[in-house]
Amino acid sequence: MDQLLQHLVNTLILGGTYALLGVGLTLIFGIMNVVNFTHGALYTVGAYLMYLAVAALGLNFFLALPVAIAGGLALGAVIEVLLLRPLRGQDIDTTMLVMIGAGIVLQSSTLWTFGGVAKAVPSPFPQAPLQLGPVSVSWLSLFVLAGALLLIGLTYALINRTKLGLAMRAAFQDADTAALMGVDVRGIYTATFALGSSLAAAAGALLGPVYVVFPQMGQLAELKAFAIVIMGGLGNVTGAAIGGFLLALAEEFGAGYVSSGYRDAMGFLIIIAVLLWRPTGLFAKAERIG
Amino acid sequence: MTRLLPVLLLAALAALPLALGTEPYLLNALITTGILTIGAMSLNLLLGYTGQLSLGHIAFFGIGAYVSALTSLGFDVEIGFGYRVAHEPWPAATGFLLAVAAAGACGWLIGRLSFRVRGAYFVIVTISFAEVVRLVALNWVELTQGPLALTGIPAFTFGLPGLGSWTLRTKLQNYYLVLGVGTLCYALIARMVRSRFGRAMRGLKENEPLALSVGINATRTLTVAAVVSAAMAGAAGSLYAHYLRIIDPDVFLFATTVTMVIMVVGGGKGTLMGPVVGGLIFGLLPVALRPVMAPEAQWIVYGIVLILILFLMPRGIVPGAAALLARGRAPRAGNTILKSRPAVQR
Amino acid sequence: MSAAILSVAHVGVRFGGLVAIADLHFDVAQGEIVSLIGPNGAGKTTAFNVMTGFLKPSQGEVRFRGTSLTGLQPHEITRLGLSRTFQRTSVFPDDTVFENVMIGLHRQGGGMSRTLLLDALLARTRASERALRERAEALLDWVGLAGRAGEKAGALAYGEQRLVGVALALATEPAMLLLDEPVSGMNASETRIFVRLIRQIRERGITVLLVEHDMPMVMEVSDRIVVLNHGRLIAEGRPEAIRSDPAVIEAYLGQGSAARRAAAGAREVAHA
């Protein structure tokens, strides 16, 4: 029972960042119809920006976080303008391959710059965990969960309460009509990609101090983000948020009760299972032919 | 021209060791390039001819490598409930055949899947499949030694009863083995593509509803293409295992799939020579770059090259060069038909 | 009139709550040329997609030469001898016209479906390949595209792409051909040529069912006309009877001006 509670708490902590990763990816997927293969690299970049700001520049931990997020925002905007904007109207396979190329460039650049040795980001929180009865949880983890939930909440507010969000929702429904109504669709795409990228960077910046920072950390994170998006449904922000917690649940209990070695396999098994059992439930209705 | 070029290239590759001597570093680069090029040719069957963006191709390669290695090394593992499966070592050539069969069987699964799951979902499923296989190779330590790697994999031995046997120990021997298997794969793909089967694949790629309506069975065509493609990748994996004689779960790295994708897309997807030319260029590029930059910097170059090709030469080097040649030969032939074009095309 | 080759028996199609076809019931007899007409959104293309297996009906069934098509895949229906053309995308755009027809001849040249790959691997195809090429040439000649054989199909003019589509459908050796708006976008002289082609197709013993908006053309070529509106059959009969049918006139006049012009066209032919 105590162990169960501990697993549930771990699920919550892990699920928060997973949800953050998934929300960013699903936004881009849903609004732009782009499978963002730079998502993992942006997550890595976020973590390294955090490391740079805190460990190398000696910036305050809580100030470094917005810096890392802003870095992801700016990098995302650059990628969109440079690579995706000229590819509008191209088939989805071409954009996927270009994004894979961009992801390789980003990941290899971090490897080249920082080397392959993992880095630790010092955190200002006390080392001793918080004990709540049988459950122990580190202060840093709690902060990470709170940060993730706050950012998801802000994203929700942005989409549902602002003019920018309204335009994004319009572009999601029908980009052509939105353009006719005077929405700057090109600008919306850049904003969407930058926003999604900043969420990936935020997830990296939050999790970096919990674990360690290394150049390949984004690879698994990216594949997990795909799993989350598939579970939640294309472009479904709420679905991705829930999917993040579901994946964390599967991993935590899979690792705890089945085999810890296969912890990371859970996401992929979920992807395969979901798509095999409910392939039609996950994409649009059959197109009219002729 | 199109039939002569492969023959010339084959002759040049066969003569290459004579010109280079047996310099081990270069020969090694050529062998691994050859093995990856076989992988790229097999990937092209899916990526280029059926239009299925399968990004889990490395799974078939790695499965081939592990099946072949384990067949020739033997194993003794528990499969649960106290049952054990033990296997005595078999010859490497048998391992090769089993590798082809096992990878082909996995290809059958992916082929069935490709009809149910389309587009971005298919891409993600194939990547996931490869990751799951990698995690199994990493974690089933009793069978695979996990990260400690399978070592002491025997080299290929070919024997004829009464004539004794012949073991491929040198790099030169392996070079010709890879060249031979590569040539065989090329010929096989060429035959398939030029046959009715090839027309069925092209039809499905260009206009699926129309292809169905002229009686082409999509499920069977895609499945057969996936099986052949995977089996060839498995063959390449087997060659890799018995050449290096050591494999670890890193044979499943996504980066290797990306290398093959770059070879196919860069060379020209959906063409016979594309993956061969792309394979040689991008397989040997590290040899050229090694003196000037570190491996991680080479990967940055690779990524930039992939992006540049997609932007500047989306059809790849071979079709691009062919178009240039054709333009050089017939300068003003293109403008004879200026009829009204359909307003709505696909 | 001989026995029915195609029977559409009380077919209904619903997409969620939307009724595309409520209840469609008609027969086509062997050797007939029948047109399926109706205002935009009447369910004509949906009906075609049901007959050729691209859509599953929510109710009812289609029978072709006595065989129920329920549960059959499009390629299986083609193999029974029911072939179709497409309204917009009637060619394999990246291949030459000749290769288009060669793809269309996929099923021909002996029942080798199970040994498709084996054929490719063993050199067993030479003779049958030559026979196929001759068939392809003959077909292109027949639809009048012999001179275009070497050109990319996607680069052809609109009317010519339609002809490629017809050649592709005929390559499957159908007993019946479904033509989806074959002359839309064609000019008057191209349409005349196409009407002649449809008659020649019938002379080859192939039954024809077409969906078309061009009323003069429909009136000229059809033996019989079936009229759909809002997913329901509202009239059925010979062209002259359809022209004066009050329900048909009402259906067309109730629509926008484009449909009204189409109906006017129909009346013009009536007075001619």
How would you describe the overall organization of this protein?
Chain A has a domain at 20-217. Helix content of chain A is 73%, strand content 2%. Chain A has twelve helices and two strands, in the order ααααββαααααααα. Chain A has a two-stranded antiparallel ribbon with strand order 1-2. In chain A, a hairpin with a 2-residue loop joins strand 1 (130-132) and strand 2. In chain A, helix 2 (39-56) packs antiparallel against helix 3 (61-84). The longest helix of chain A has 31 residues, at 2-32. Chain B is mainly α and 346 residues long. Chain B has a domain at 24-253. Helices cover 69% and strands 7% of the residues of chain B. Chain B is built from 14 helices and six strands. Chain B has a two-stranded antiparallel ribbon. Chain B has a two-stranded antiparallel sheet with strand order 3-6. The longest helix of chain B is centred in the N-terminal third of the chain and has 27 residues, at 24-50. The two termini of chain B are 32 Å apart. With 272 residues, chain C is of the alpha/beta class. Chain C folds into two domains: 4-89 and 174-271, Rossmann fold (3-Layer(aba) Sandwich), CATH 3.40.50.300; 92-155, no CATH class. Chain C has helices spanning 44-51, 74-80, 97-104, 116-121, 126-143, 158-171, 188-203, 215-221, 239-243, 246-253, 257-271, and strands spanning 4-15, 18-29, 33-37, 59-64, 67-68, 82-84, 176-180, 207-211, 224-229, 232-237. The model of chain C is unreliable at 110-114 (pLDDT under 50). The A-B interface holds A 29, 35, 83, 86, 92-94, 96-98, 100-105, 107-109, 111-112, 219, 223, 226-227, 230, 259, 261-262, 264-265, 267-269, 271-272, 275-276, 279, 282-283, 289-290 and B 51, 53, 113, 116-121, 123-125, 127-129, 131-132, 135-136, 138-139, 209, 254-255, 258, 261, 265, 294, 296-297, 299-300, 302-307, 310-311, 314.
Low-pLDDT residue intervals, each spanning 5 or more residues of chain C = 110-114
Span between N and C termini of chain C? 28 Å
* Content of β-strand of chain C: 15-25%
Q: Give the ordered list of helices and strands of chain C.
A: EEEHEEHEHHHHEHEHEEHHH
N-to-C series of helices and strands of chain A: HHHHEEHHHHHHHH
Strand order of the largest sheet of chain C: 6-7-8-3-9-10
Arithmetic mean pLDDT of chain A: 84
Oligomer: heterotrimer
Number of helices of chain A: 12
- Under CATH, the homologous superfamily of the largest domain in chain C reads P-loop containing nucleotide triphosphate hydrolases
From the alpha-carbon coordinates, what is the Rg of chain C to the nearest angstrom? 19 Å
Shape of chain C: globular
Helical amount of chain A: over 70%
* Distance separating the two termini of chain A: 59 Å
Estimate the mean pLDDT confidence of chain C.
82
Helix-strand makeup class of chain A: mainly alpha
